[in-house]
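Technical annex, item 7. During the second reporting period the consortium partners agreed on a shared format for inverse folding records so that results from different sites could be compared directly. Each record opens with the tokenized structure and is followed by the designed sequence. A conforming record, contributed by the partner at site C, is shown below for reference.
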């Protein structure tokens, strides 16, 4: 953690795909224990910001500090070892493997069986369905269950921070509600999260703080409640 009590600080991040600039100097911060949400229209650079933080994309400039360490440009596997987990959008699971095997894949850096069991117990306490379905093939789960499995797999390493990219995307309404309930449960048991979410109003309603990105730049930031009540944010991003 840095001197300001920040767990993550992305400072002036510029990033591009080839010659196409996507991020134009964005700033994002997360403190331990927070649930921070990042919203904005399609093409705002939200997912690109996450990919840059976890090392899938090298920033052209700017610095990324995590837990007091400069991780700018580190490869994803090194970032993961430092305690920063990433759940990409699209419910990415190994369909031909069981639920249990998927979870164990998430814990490949854990070598001690007792620690593996502790991690499994922690994950299945938050997502009991994964414990009930542990022998089932991941490909046979519903979309919402696969998303819970993808999140559960990221929790297996007991990360200090989890980045979740569009966790409710494409889910049936009952699972959208359930995912947000689970995010609050994760926060309650001590996980720190930053969440990119299309469902802006719902995301802000559960967030401690939020950022609104537009065209690769910071547009608004504040507490979740303040952004929900901001007439300009309402008009531009919350359909009202």
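Designed sequence (site C submission):
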């Amino acid at each position: 953690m840095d001197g300001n009590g920040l767990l993550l600080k992305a400072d002036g991040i510029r990033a591009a795909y080839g010659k196409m600039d996507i991020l134009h100097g964005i700033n994002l911060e997360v403190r331990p224990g927070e649930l921070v949400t990042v919203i904005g229209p399609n093409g705002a650079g939200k997912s690109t910001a996450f990919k840059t933080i976890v090392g899938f994309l090298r920033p052209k400039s700017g610095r990324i500090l995590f837990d007091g360490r400069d991780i700018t440009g580190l490869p994803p596997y090194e970032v993961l070892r430092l305690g920063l987990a990433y759940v990409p959008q699209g419910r990415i699971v190994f369909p031909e493997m069981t639920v249990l095997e998927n979870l164990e894949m998430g814990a490949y850096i854990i070598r001690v069986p007792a620690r593996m069991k502790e991690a499994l117990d922690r994950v299945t306490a938050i997502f009991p369905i994964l414990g009930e379905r542990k022998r089932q093939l991941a490909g046979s789960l519903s979309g919402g269950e696969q998303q819970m499995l993808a999140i559960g797999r990221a929790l297996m390493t007991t990360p200090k921070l989890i980045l979740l990219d569009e966790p409710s995307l494409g889910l049936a309404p009952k699972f959208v509600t359930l995912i947000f309930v689970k995010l609050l449960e994760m926060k309650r048991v001590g996980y720190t999260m930053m969440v990119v979410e299309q469902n802006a109003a719902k995301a802000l309603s559960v967030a401690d703080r939020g950022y609104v990105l537009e065209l690769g730049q910071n547009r608004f930031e504040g507490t979740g409640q303040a952004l929900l009540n901001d007439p300009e944010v309402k008009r531009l991003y919350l359909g009202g």
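The mean pLDDT is 92. The first strand starts at residue 8 and ends at 17. All partners now use this format for quarterly exchanges.
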